[in-house]
Amino acid sequence: MIRAIREARNGNAFFSPAISKRLLENYRETFMKGAPAGTRVDRLTSREAEVLQLVAEGKVNKQISAELCVSVKTVEKHRQQMMNKLNIHDVAGLTRYAISKGIIESSISPRL
Predict the structure, then answer these.
(1) DSSP class of residue 97?
(2) CA 104 to chain centre
(3) Domain ranges of the chain
(4) What is the DSSP letter of 41?
(5) What is the 8-class DSSP label of residue 44?
(6) Proportion of the chain in helix, strand, coil states, percent, rounded to 5
(7) What pLDDT, on the 0 to 100 scale, is given for residue 42?
(8) Quick one: pLDDT at residue 34?
(9) Which DSSP symbol is given to 42?
(10) Residues 3, 13: contact at Cβ < 8 Å?
(11) pLDDT in tens, 17-71
(12) Secondary-structure class of domain 40-100 per CATH
């Protein structure tokens, strides 16, 4: 904790070993697929990421607009931009993507 505070005070980023491992795995996976680093979810704005999470949780535009205190039209715009950036054009695809990126957790437990 002290190291993290010192790094932040010096203007540096500090990641726990678990987060560092996850970032490295994500980078390696992206590199192995031949895609440039910093694509897809990194290109989403924070608001688009919020909308993605809520869509993947099964909320409709009206519910999302109420939760985020924005108009339904604004939610629709964020949703369309997000779908274009990710090249995913259905809710099932967005949900799978959100689960794969750890944005939400799957409620389906694995079968033994």
Answers:
(1) H
(2) 9
(3) 2-32, 40-100
(4) G
(5) S
(6) 65, 0, 35
(7) 57
(8) 63
(9) G
(10) no
(11) 777 777 778 777 776 766 554 444 557 888 888 899 899 889 999 999 999 999 9
(12) mainly alpha
